[in-house]
Amino acid sequence: MNRKACCGILLAVCVMALMSCSTGNSSHSFINNNVPPVISATSGTPQSHAVNGAFGLPMIATVTTNGSPTSGVLVTFTAPASGASGAFAGGVSTATTDSNGLATSPAFTANGVAGAYTVTAAIPGVSTPARFNLTNTTGAPASIAATSGSSQGVMVNTPFSSPLVASVVDGGQNPVSGAVVTFTAPATGASGIFADTASNNTMATTNASGVATSALFTANGSSGANMVIASVAGVPAPATFILTNLAGPPASIAATGGTPQSAAVDTAFTAPLVAAVLDSFSNPASGVAVTFTAPATGASGTFVNGTVSETDMTDANGIATSTTFLANATTGGPYAVMASVAGLSAGADFTLTNRVPSNTYVFFLSGQEASFPDFYALVGSIEVDLSGNVLAGEQDYNDALGFTSPQPSGDSITGGKLTVNVNTGRARLTLNTNNTNLGVGGVETVGVQFVNTDHAQIVDFDGVATSSGSMDLQKLPSSLSGGYAFTLAGVDYGYSGPVAFGGVFSISNGTTLENGTVDTNDSGTVTTAAALSGTLSTFDSFGRGTITSTLNYFDTPIALNYYVVGPEVIRIIDVDSTDSAVGSAFGQGVNSTASTNASLGNSVFGIAGSPYPINYGVAGMFSTASSLATFAGVADDNESTYGLQLPDSVISGVYSIAPNGYGNLTITAGDLGDVSILGIYMTDPNLNLNDPNNTTTGLGGALVADMDAALPGGIGVVLPQVDTSTASFTGKYAFAGQGYNDFCCEFDLLGLGQVTNGALNGIGIVSDPFFTFGANATNSGVGFSGTPLPDTSNPGRYTMSATNPTPNPLNMEINGSIIPFEVVVYQASGGQLFWLDDDVFSVFLGSFQQQGSLTGIPTTAKLANKTTAKQKP
Q: Label partner for 662 (CA 20 to 30 A): which of 262, 378, 781, 873?
């Protein structure tokens, strides 16, 4: 064989060997550019997962070439750019095939869109990618929303036109089907019921669109906005439906503000007129036209539009409020403004009063009722214009039989008349009250004798009761403060015995009663120097307030009301049903902290006993020796019930006054019958205790309470004796007396007299419901006459007695008869005197008060100087 042939054979063998190596070893890759690789989905398809969650398996693609695994190939995984899709961890979406031709994707998380989709896996140069079929399934409920049915409004007890529709979605805002939705309306107030459950809640299941629809919802009978909530388990925030139950048509109207009130003529009323309009279910009716109409003539007024009528709309609360209402300029008195609504037969009335210039007076009375000799007390405050019209007022009553004015309101005084003789100051006062049990059908009649412009003595004069007291012009301070002395007297419940209190206290901040000391004589059980404290409510426009204190009746606190006359004068009444008492508190001025025995000097005193069961009166005078704390003087005692009269008795004893004005005065036993132990309580030396507004003739003095066990229930006053001259006892005097016949029963007298040349002549009235003096319960035009004879041994003491050298008893001409009284008079000054009936027939104690100016008392209505015996004053 030649060399050339050998070389050819060797070349062929080498080529075959090389081809044999290429096909015989499967562990090595060889890319034949003429055969493209293939990529296929090997694992992770199909699979599903809830939205926003990671799929459980990665996606694995296999790359082969001619059926053999191909390593090192970069595979790109691609998810849809929108709709249902997902995202690879770390944002990496490629993987390289391993030695087995496998490419494993990074972890894949579904996005928030539910649905099926395909993720592709592709390699370069190959047009057909591998496909992975994935599905994002709906998640658990994540939120619920009110889709429709909110913002509806229907009349109460009417179905809402549209059901309540709520939509439930998952965290990707995909509708959730099969979710149970609970609809719940309010349990109270404006709400309603669902038709399927007849209650305030129901349930519904969402459909394929995630929508739950409630049963028909019907408004209940309460108007107003209500919130129905729709909730689903696992979702913290419910859906809210705002619904409104609309009120029905107007069914009623009522005055709720601005009544009653008063305003001075030609001035605006303080408060607007406020009316409330309700439907038949007592729901506020909004958007209703209310017309306010005042009288066209007489006392009336106008609204800001200048007319007597205006129309205002009710607000969401059913309230219609008028504009400012102005009292007319010329006419005073009460009247009604009506508020009306079209279609309603009844309107609402507002009680208004146009005030002409006026005065406010505080009055207090105590006495007996005619049906039985029952004790009673009455304290009040009234506003009277200068024409004598009683515009308004308040009062409190207590009769110790459990009958009292209602508390805390008291009785309202709605009108009346003060008819005055401006020449004499004699007057008749009628008071219209809202308590028909008082007076005659709620109308009380009072006889009045003005002492001066600011002060009057008064008696009950209606024939069904009798009592005495005073009436004083009110001068309200901004608040009360300082030290006060006080006394109260009355009876225990059921007239089981008389009771008297006396003591001192101080007021701070207008409402705190403190540093008090009180003496009590309760049916002969005496307690002295007990601590007293409490509180006062702020007084109202009539000066009325309440006192809560440690003062008690058999360990039961006594309820007290007070009426302010002025900064240093307070009238007090017990208003509970366990007892009845009335009295006064007077400011102490410097005597509240700086009293001494020297604070009590030459004095005149008067003490009136309880009307039940022991009627007695005492009057006297004494001088003191403060360095020795002793006194001596003369006094008269008439213990009518016991038939004991002690005229012209020499008295002496000891006394003691503490720095706070609290003290005691002891009369030597036997000097003055059963009167021996007195509590004494010093007052402001600038006060006039009988006429508290008359500071120009202030005498000061003290209050006293009888602490004798034999004579409970007595209280009185001590006045400084500054003038004993007979020449000073002259001029016009208002006089009064509260008396009892020798049986038990009361009579009261009131009049005006002239003392000329030592002789008294006067005319007055006598309240006599127990017919002590004849057939008339009320007697007018009664004559009084007598000559007070000076006691030469005791200057300042006078007698009108049949035993005088010249017979000169006090004669009372009544019912055609002359009735004599044995009377003693004690003079504190020419303007202030006490008189005491000192005979066996009866006992009365009263005062002479010199009459001053009457300028300023009501002048339009005048009373004749005389009336017949049958005519009430």
A: 378
